[in-house]
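so my prof wants the structure for this chain in the tokens format not the other one, which i didnt know existed until like an hour ago. anyway here's the sequence
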Amino acid sequence: MMASSRAYWAATLLLVLIFGAGFAVGRSNAPLHGMEVTFNNASGQRIDAIQLDFGSADSQSSLQVYRIEPGQQRLLVLNHRPAMGFNVKVTYQDGQMQEFCALKGRKQQRATLTLRL
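here's what i got, hopefully its the right format
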């Protein structure tokens, strides 16, 4: 009875590992229907907020992200086509702000924006 219990758990563990590996490989190779943008806080202070505004002729979207500590990153998935660009407004802990248009004309689906003062 002990041997069959071990075999059952070994088979279960093997199935979980196979499905987990399949999910990880599938996720990393799946086509995006938008963009993945990583915001990297390379400043010496906390980012209190990031506001993103993006859209097309048919729609307009706004997204806000809060509290990114120095040295940390935040990944956002945008329902927005690459190369169209989007507006970014960054508010730092001391009240300083940065505003810019990001990734206009760049067709990459995965990008990292490094934020520093």
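also thought this was worth mentioning. The two ends are 66 Å apart (CA to CA).
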